[in-house]
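User: Can you predict the 3D structure for this chain?
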Amino acid sequence: MKILYEDSNILAIDKPSGIAVHADGRTKEKTIADWIIKNYPTMKNVGESELYENKKVKTEIKKPGIVHRLDRDTSGVLLLAKNGKAYQFLKNKFQNREVRKIYLAIVSGNVKNERGIINKPIGKSPKDFRRYLAGRGARGEMREAVTEYRVLKRLPGFTVLEVRPKTGRTHQIRVHMKYINHPVACDSLYNPGKPCPKGIKRLALHAKSIEFKNLKGESIKIESKLPKEFEKLL
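Assistant: Here is the predicted structure, written as structure tokens:
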């Protein structure tokens, strides 16, 4: 696991695509949380745990130092708290929208406008417990979600976007791109069975950078290099 930034309170790693941030109670595959506990044992009890119930068996899932998450197949910058003070500090930063995140996404189709803002609350899909939904048909609590984007490049059949989520809802970018009929390429959940850009065999979403102020008040910007298959395509 490549470390992008580290001080006495905060750790940032370059998360690869294809690995979950923490367990979900259904599978036993290794996760980022397992790597954290092995390499940073003092972080084991930092933050929260969650009880998952599967087939009437309850399992405690550790989330050591995890203050935000990336989807399993999303790569890029993942920020972690090394102690309780840092955990609360970063949680407050995220809740107050004082953390600036930039993603690179390759989406299906030709996005008409050079820039756009998607301001559409997100709820649960009534058809699939794994999916979320913006707009008509969404169920349960509707949570505010705002995503800004701008076009970086146009490819045959695809558009490359710089995306800035202003809120942090589960699957937010994937759901909002689906809502405007330009789902993220190679997304098996929201864009199944559709063509992928040449050379891309994974979700075409990368957490490119994250910017915030640390506990000393210093401005920190952490960047992750584009995956090789993205660089080659672009």
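The chain is about 15% helix and 40% strand. The helical segments are 32-39, 84-95, 172-179, 228-233.
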